[in-house]
Hints:
CATH architecture of the largest domain: 4-Layer Sandwich
Low-confidence stretches: 51-64, 380-453, 469-500
Strand order of the largest sheet: 3-4-2-1-14-13
Number of strands: 19
Helix content: 25-40%
Structural class: alpha+beta
Radius of gyration: 35 Å
Amino acid sequence: MRILTWNINGVRTIPQYHPWNTFKTHEEILNNLHADILCFQGVHKLLQKFAPVSLICDSQEMKSSRQNLPKAVGVPPSYHSFFSFPRHRSGYSGVAVYAKLASATPLKAEEGLTGLLQPNPPLLPSECISQPDAYPTQTPECEELDLRSLDSEGRALVIDFGLFVLVAVYCPNDGTDTDQRIQYKADFHTILAARIRGLVGEKREVILLGDLNACAAVIDHAEGPLMVARAQEEGIEGEEGFWLTGARKWLRDLIADNGGILVDVVRRFHPDRKGMYTCWNTKISARESNYGARIDYILVTPGLLPWIEAADIQPELKGSDHCPVFIDLRDSLVDNQGREILLQDVLGVTREAEPPRLAAKFWDEYKQRLLSTFFTTKTSSHPSDQQHPASPDASGIASSSSLSASLEMQPSKRKLDAIQPQSASQTLSKKPKSQQEKPQVSLDSTKLKKAVKGQTSLASFFAKPTAQSSSSKAVHAEKRKTTDKNDIIVIDEDHAPPSSSPTVQSDLDADYQFALKLSQEPIPSASSPLNKNLEAKAWGRMLAPPAPPRCVVHGEPAKSMTVTKTGPNKGKSFFICSRPVGPGYDAGKATRRRSEVDDQWRCNFFKWASDVRREEMTRKDTPD
């Protein structure tokens, strides 16, 4: 059995990458991840291909919701599925767990970590995973916390699979933020650790997995050694400089190697592997040089280690700025007494069993019948099938054929052909003979029904304009011409609007100077055979992109890029060093100490394309 976790909250979406873009359904994507239990974070990316366009437009930065989740994504035929969405804050979080029907059916399932998020009706005591005293609501360190608020962002699912309890989480990010969010992150870590300790206290085996948004060791961060060296220069001994971040310290203390209660399985299988990163900054193309961090983990209690036969990351799978992480469980295990224990037996649930009530298949959204089904005529290849009674699910509902017949529009007494213009009737000349020979109904006003007051008659759209209306239109046209002539506005230079930015103005100046230079060149007469060639060369020089400059440090041709961020510079081109980023790359004096710069990586070269073009003009104007 394979258990996989993947944060699909990347800048790119899964269906834009191969091989995911070759699959037509969400279930095909799940099947080709080759896992039995799949845990996703950033659930909104599941909508990008399979939801209607209107839903995608409404939730581009929203981590999905029950109303936005198509049934094909929410309830794939071969999987049990569970979701947690933010309660109030749109555009946030969202986690999902899929369990393959053929492999495992959960015993129990809960949303959140506190036990306060309840379905309707609430879970019975027999449906709860733990006893009341094992939840964070009963722990002293959580007494002062707003537990319901901490559990309202759709960041956790707790699912009981018999052999173990799966805790799938999406921890708040580790970036610098407001004091309020920093405190929220610390409080979330507190209740997460309390929930795990409560499960361990009940003698349960636990698998904690997901995007923890923190690093568990110096080796898990590309800049880790530089952070340690910088702290040592400031007098901080050992690796303590790396643990100044609260989230890293919390994760370090949770792992058994440092006295915690969980084991970092992937690191246990690959203790010395460097560059084992799971997340990269795609905005600076960091994945190309593997300049990233390991923040996606699968942590287990020590009692599960005998069941685990493999664990690793999958950086070759694209589709997000994260990569999947997985563990493989053995199909069987021999205990101390020599007895073989099958994995399916200790999971404890057969395929035929129903999943817990939290499963998406029980949502009201998926129980409702689509309105379109009431207006669809049922087709059958055998006439005898039409005589069968309706299915039990359709009891009390009129058949679609009878309903559509009752709603069918009655034919109008006035044929639409009677008011068709001549050109339209000509285009319909290929009608069947029975239709062509129908007599045309006269448009005599005495035979037409009187239009309702205030309502335009359909025939009026096909009537010839009267002389009065023609003269009225002529008057309006004359007024329009007069208005157009008077609509020319002269702007005084003293009152002209300012330029949007200096960089935009510099572009205009450069283009103006270049055009002025071209205008001063002697132009041959129209009869000259070189006229067309010179014109083509002139336009080619004006429209051609500037040649890439060379970066100062490496002397290599720079890479052209375009501003995509909304603002005054959007659409402008610029050049940067073409080398990839890496540990110690020059991110600028404000970010990187000069002593830490490693010249084998990208330098801080930057130049606007407009400046490059201006320099080219200057060189051409300067005599040799």
